[in-house]
Design brief:
This protein has two domains: 1-32, no CATH class; 33-126, Helix Hairpins, CATH 1.10.287.3610. Helix content is 82%, strand content 0%. The protein contains four helices and no strands. The longest helix has 34 residues, at 93-126. The N and C termini lie far apart (57 Å). 11% of the residues are buried.
Length: 129
């Protein structure tokens, strides 16, 4: 939703409302999107592991941050799918393409997680005697 007050700062009340809307969106994703629930469960398991295995702050940020990107993209993909479903269940080529592209964006970020974790952790495993 566009700001109704132009370019002025939101202030504490506006920030509070934006936070509530964000929490409402996270709750909706948790309740209605099984992929999001799976990604959250994997994050809860892997984030502490990434924090432990990361050798520096940058490595920890990469290991954990790559997973948060997947969840963020899943939220966007779910939003696109919800808007498309709002207009009806009938098939339309462009609607199908939009849903497929949203899914592909999540997939690309999942590959980024594998690449990030592999590039950081594999050299350590290979150097072990």
């Amino acid at each position: 939703m566009a700001d109704s007050i132009g370019h002025l700062p939101r202030g504490p009340r506006g920030i509070y409302r934006a936070t509530l809307w964000s929490l409402k969106g996270l709750r909706a994703a948790w309740l209605h999107e099984s992929s999001f629930r799976l990604e959250v469960v994997l994050f809860v398991i892997l984030a502490p592991l990434g924090f432990h295995l990361g050798g520096s702050g940058v490595e920890r940020a990469l290991l954990i941050g790559s997973m948060t990107l997947v969840m963020a993209m899943e939220l966007l993909n779910s939003a696109v799918e919800a808007v498309i479903e709002r207009y009806g269940p009938e098939f339309h080529e462009l609607a199908g393409r939009a849903k497929d592209m949203g899914s592909a964006a999540v997939f690309v970020l999942m590959m980024n997680v594998l690449l990030t974790w592999g590039l950081i952790l594999l050299p350590r495993l290979l150097d072990q005697p």
